[in-house]
Amino acid sequence: MSELWLVKNHQILKWDFQKPDFGLEGAFSDFLEKQGLFEKKFRILLLDSPNVTHFALPTSKNSYLFILSLPFIRTLDLSKLEISLLLMEDMVRADAELFKSHVRPTAQSLLGTNYAGSKLDLKKVELVLKKYDEMILDKGFTFSQQFEVTKHMDKTLKNDQELWGTYYRMIRKIDALVKENSLYRNLPRIYPSPELQLNWLAPPKRKGP
Amino acid sequence: MEGFLKNVLLLLLFLPSLHAADKVMMVKYLNTAWGHVHQNASRYSTSLTTVSCGHPIKIYEVKSEWHKVGAGPYTGYVASSQLSDKKPTCVQDKYPRFFDDLKLEITQMYYWGKLYDHYIEGKSRLK
Description:
The complex is a heterodimer of chains A (about 210) and B (about 130).
Chain A: H1 2-8, H2 10-13, H3 24-34, E1 41-47, E2 54-57, E3 63-69, H4 70-76, H5 80-95, H6 98-107, H7 122-139, H8 143-157, H9 161-180, H10 187-190, H11 194-201
Parallel strand pairs in A: 1-3
Antiparallel strand pairs in A: 2-3
Helix pairs in contact in A: 3-5, 5-8, 6-7, 9-11
Chain B: H1 2-18, E1 26-30, E2 34-38, E3 47-52, E4 56-62, E5 66-71, E6 74-79, E7 83-84, H2 91-94, H3 96-102, H4 106-118, E8 120-123
Antiparallel strand pairs in B: 1-4, 1-7, 2-3, 4-5, 5-6
């Protein structure tokens, strides 16, 4: 279903374009291995559009399908390490099945059913694809979901202060971007909100009496 | 001059046979839902034709990332990662009614094949 959504939205996502080899495959594989995340298959699809900055689409078990905006990473001048951290955040969301739980109620009427003797109800397929649109382009994740994801990243990365610092600085970059660049002002609607994430990661010190 | 012209004519006559049917080394099968036979060994090269999963493809030449192939009347290149020695279990075969009733347009099949040209694929390994 994810690939059907990618095909149907090729004009909005603009993934059919020529681009150089950024070495993302090797960089992300190395990163996952250093984090102890082994035997994880992944596919990354680069987009030539700011409409979707980054997302992990549902796919088969132990496998990940990421979409990643090239204009977004270029504007932020993200390093391969920062890109890997961004994708790791998306992995955490995928493992928590946050997207699947949003789509599942609609998809249940379609998947795992037997429509022998009748035709496939295309309206059900359209409804599932609309749920994809809703989540990826419009509503995104909730504050509590973002909190859980950020806290998980915090706990995981704190073992390596340098890595934690890189993640924190990347969120700070994204926070500045959404405030200064109108092209990305809707990003906090999908991933609320970079400013709150910074507070969750490093709560401001309370002033003494 | 006459001799030169004669040689040129002879060359032109035999030139097609220099491109005589490539020798088929083996037959492989496309293992992605849809895929493209490219004009050159590049994912961005013009697509000669779109083929669906399980389609038998004649292999003329094997290189690390690309195979020179024949599919129907077309001779071109397919990414090695998209070819399997054995006929794979295709998603279209697993759910034939679903795909038939989906009524995909040719453009959609074309773009579905293009997806696999654009994926950056990898895997973290246990060392």
